[in-house]
Amino acid sequence: MKIGIDFTSATRERAGIGRYARELVHALARLDHDHRYALFVPRDARADALRFDWGVNFSIHRAPLTERILAALWQRARVPLPIEAFIGPVDVFYSPDFLLPPTRARRTLVTIHDLSYVRVPECFPAPLLRYLARAVPPSIARADLILADAVSTQRDLVEVYGVPLEKVRVLYSGVDARFSPHVAPDAQARVRALTRGKPYVLSVSTLQPRKNYARLVEAFGKLISDSRFQISDLLLVIAGGRGWLFDEVFQVVARLGLQARVVFPEFVADDDLPALYAGAMLFAYPSLYEGFGLPIVEAMACGAPVITSNASSLPEVAGEAALYFDPRDVEAMADALHRALTDASLRESLRARGFAQARRFSWEQAARELKESLEG
Questions:
Q1: Which domains can be identified in the chain, with CATH numbers?
Q2: Strand order in 92-95's β-sheet?
Q3: pLDDT tens digits for 151-169?
């Protein structure tokens, strides 16, 4: 077969869905040498994101139009230009990023990572909320098969949009082999410089309200002001690019006078991320809603003990390898931080269970299941 894939998100976003698309399609390229693949990217796609040892059965098709122009054409045109105009005829078309462009393929697949814009709409700016509410449902309706990041998302699709259960297949994400406790000395040195050689609690994700960082900062403030707590130089490191509506996080840091104790390195290079995970005393993931929660699996694979929300997919993904808390309860979050940081045996237990849990997820397995789904 000839299979088309929208690779746009892989070239647009360094983290999140961009990482998902890159890792999954790279694993597919290593696995499948039989079918022909046409990867679609817009004119303004980053060239570095396309560098990979693609097999001879993979080809890159760059449209002469930017992503913004293409989106406008596809959403507003009465008779939208099919993607085959840029990649040629295909038997199957797959989009790993919510939106299914117009296509004449006989079979279509789309990944719906989560329905956060429905479940926690207060976490989105109004224009983005309107866009997703308008654009995602038609993709769900047009797709022959929907891939969901977890059972919780599969359940949401059935409950919110009435999608037949048999139309949704769960496809778990994976974790790359580079995420391990064994990290390069130069990466360790860069992390030590970033953290000033101090112990730290880590969280990794884009700064936006759904990630719940304002409450995490408040919980951290309660923790270090507790007279029972003895780690006087502990830092909170929140690594991730700036998304939207993130001002509150910095306002809370300023209000609590924590500028010297909360570090925002923004986006951390892929080469340094395993070392950042491996060096953490604790990994905290306070998200209000996740489709999967890839950072918790990466943290576990690197040996970081994990505490996380008891919301959406996170208990499904972390299993018995994490300590849970209510993400809307600052006191509960502070208690979880205190318990994990003051109990070395608990951290060691979480660490051991985390290694085992992380081994359940691999991009090779995800690619194998994607190939089966593409073949029908």
A1: 2-174+362-375 (3.40.50.2000), 185-358 (3.40.50.2000)
A2: 58-62, 36-41, 2-6, 92-95, 107-112, 145-148, 168-170
A3: 999 999 999 999 999 999 9
